[in-house]
Amino acid sequence: MMEAELSFAGREAGRPTRHALWALALVFGILCFVLSAVTPGSAISVALIGAGAVFTGAGAVLGVRKTARGRTTPLASADVASVLDGDPFPSVLCSDDLVVRYANPAARRDLCADPGGSLVDCLRERLAHPAALLQRLSDSTAKTGSAAEDVVLGDSAVRVAARAAGPGLTLWRIEEVVAAPSGDAGVAALSVGRRGAILAMNGSARVLLGRRVRALSDLVGRDTVDNGAVHEIATADGRQRIEFRCLSAGPGRTEIALLPAPEAGTMPSTVFETLPIALVTVARDGAILAANREARSLLALDCHEGARLGTLLEGLGRPIAEWIADAAEGRGLNRPEFLRLSRAHRETFLQVALTRTSGGDLLAVMTDATELKTLEAQFVQSQKMQAIGQLAGGVAHDFNNLLTAISGHCDLLLLRHFRGDPAYDDLLQINQNANRAAALVGQLLAFSRKQSMKPELLDLRETLSDLTHLLNRLVGERISLELRHEPALPAIRGDQRQLEQVMMNLVVNARDAMPDGGRILVETERLTLDSPLKRDRAEVEPGDYVVVKVTDTGTGIAPDKVRKVFEPFYTTKRSGEGTGLGLSTVYGIVKQTGGFIFLDSELGVGTTFRLIFPAQSGVTNAAAVPARPAARAQAGPPVTGGVVLLVEDESPVRAFAARGLRLKGFTVLEAENGECALEMLDDPGLEIDLIVSDMIMPGRDGPTWVREARKARPDVGVIFMSGYATDALGASAGDMSNVSFLQKPFSLNKLAEVVQDGLAEASALRTTKSEDPDADGASGIRTGG
């Protein structure tokens, strides 16, 4: 065999005729030149010169090519056996088609390489896809003369090197860079290339699988596998559940570790750790066995060793250990419980559900429910405040009727007593306290946003400047009050009386927060929002706004009390010093105006209330004028006398109003409800100049019976009275013309003034109609009080 192997090399190394052609060509060329010089005929001489040139040129070209080949392929003429047989690594001499021409002893031993065989087949047992590798190295060798590439084989590496060894010959050398250890090499690993081709397997993988695997599809049925996925595959010991751990090893290459998978019914460790849900494995005695990343973050656990669930959570109403013991026995599983995290620096609530694992332990699934509990508390609070608002609106009607009767009859008594009379001061006290009670009802209505409003365009600079004198008297000498205004401040729309009440409440609260004196700063500024402002569950839409800030240097408000300050009846003052309605009133007025109120406070530093009102576009301070002129200015001079039909179901109110109007010179007809009033109006001979009617009565309410009466008496004027707000009644009487509204409670003078205005307007309307039969009265409800 050795002679056969060397014969090919000998033929390639010894071809004297072919390699001496260049010398013969030069000899023929020189001979032609010599003969041309001694030949007498010119034609023959020219021919010999041409032939000499051809032979000389051909010889030179052949000589150059031989010299170049001699430099790059010295092995072609050497004794191949003496050079390669001593190499400890497999070395193979192959033709361009990768057919083995000679193999050294190491190649015959390790690769089973025989002359005439294919180098690709020899490397299949070592490399997954050798054809592509050898073709790539052959192309590089043809360009540069040599090439090499390392191939990673799990826990070892092989370097395949190629070198040009003569015309049509390449010397291949396979060198073991890192020797593969015998036996088990630790973790089974695969080197996977593109399209799932397995490039290499380490020793442990070969032991585990018991065979050479060339593609992932042979293991899992497809070309890709997910990191952490568990597959049942065929191994040397039968089918086993294997977890695939994937790690990128560069472009187009992935290293995959094959690990024993957890028992069926348990969770792979990678999935347990990376799930975006907090999971905790708990023993039957409450000890934490394992916690994934989300759970450690939620429970603020650096290490779960020695930790117990009962020491971390509280608020179940019974020991956590009993709850866990019940769950271990199968009671109360998968039923979420809301618990509080005991070690958190802030109040944190968790929703926890327990389920049993196949091993008998418990798996706790946890969710941060802090925001949910906060929203629940806010919803309960809003429901409570809404209920109080409805109560305030409902009570206001009956309460205002009582106050009307009390203050009205007190006014009648005051008409018969003069200053200096022993009973005068007592009557005055009754009247003043009735007015205070009326203001208290007004605060309740403001909180419930059902207070009557008289909106107008306001210049806040003027409003606050006019209020400065009163505010200075409220704060006292130990507290300085400072006002700052931004020039060119836009106007806002609101009720001036209510906004003054807001400022007084805020300034008084700031004063009470500074018992040792301090400074209150009231400033206004313009605010333009290009994007929504989201804060405290409120969203301020983009646009132009006017901001009023009231800042004090007082004691501040504790964080746990900030959310309670706007609740009705909540106060930190001592009994008798406050009702707890101040800030709830402020909140209701600001909201009713369409604005927002925000609070910033820091203990020991001070508090800032920030009021945000919508600016009126295109309206400057100079244009801030009342939205509606007074009723008296429309109606002309007051009118005395006239017949008034008074309809009121509350006897004390009806008695006071009737007596008071009669004392003012009016003729008063009384009816206790709408049905009685319609019976009186059935008399065509009865002349009525004005109707004064309560809005809410048993049977037919005010607007209903007045519409019926106006079918026969369309020109009669109407004044509606009610303890409810004007806005709440606009829908029922807003389409009626020549109508005024009188808010309860009212004084005798206010009642007389509104009745005089109503009679004057009715008289003016009748005059207008007599001159122009097509004229009609103005529609809408006019506020008379």
TrEMBL record:
Q: What's the Enzyme Commission number for this chain?
A: 2.7.13.3
The membrane-spanning stretches of this chain are 20-38, 44-64
Q: Where is the Histidine kinase domain?
A: 394-617
- Give every Response regulatory domain span: 643-759
Q: Where is this region: Disordered?
A: 765-785
Enzymatic reactions: ATP + protein L-histidine = ADP + protein N-phospho-L-histidine
Among Gene3D superfamilies, the record links this protein to: 1.10.287.130, 3.40.50.2300, Histidine kinase-like ATPase, C-terminal domain, PAS domain
> Superkingdom of this entry's organism?
Bacteria
Kindly state which keywords UniProt assigns to this record, in alphabetical order: Membrane, Phosphoprotein, Transmembrane, Transmembrane helix
Residues with the modification 4-aspartylphosphate, per the entry, are 694
A single Gene Ontology MF term assigned here is: phosphorelay sensor kinase activity
Q: Which CDD domains match?
A: HisKA
Q: What class of enzyme is it?
A: transferase
Query: Which PANTHER family does this UniProt record tie to the protein?
Result: SENSOR HISTIDINE KINASE, TWO-COMPONENT SENSOR PPRA
Q: What protein name does the entry list?
A: histidine kinase
